[in-house]
Design goal:
By secondary structure, the chain is an all-alpha fold. The chain has one domain. Helices cover 78% and strands 0% of the residues. Helix 1 runs antiparallel to helix 3. The longest helix is centred in the C-terminal third of the chain and has 26 residues. It is elongated, with a radius of gyration of 17 Å.
Length: 67
């Protein structure tokens, strides 16, 4: 089940990045280097935040009674 959640998360992240690229394809040609770096930083920060949120929510250790 954990693997399924992880794979789903990765697929959704890749689809989101693909959608971002498609939506900004025309504008990327007019971006300068600083704009592209800022866009990359924002995308990486959002991805890291999503992974951290999911990791804390789905993969934390829950103590089980009797163990």
């Amino acid at each position: 089940m954990r693997l399924h959640r992880a794979v789903t998360l990765v697929v959704m992240m890749l689809l989101a990045i693909g959608l971002l690229v498609v939506m900004t394809a025309g504008a990327i040609g007019s971006f300068d280097t600083h704009s592209l770096i800022a866009l990359g930083v924002v995308v990486l920060a959002a991805a890291a935040g999503g992974v951290a949120f999911s990791w804390r929510r789905y993969y934390r250790r829950v103590p089980r009674p009797g163990r």
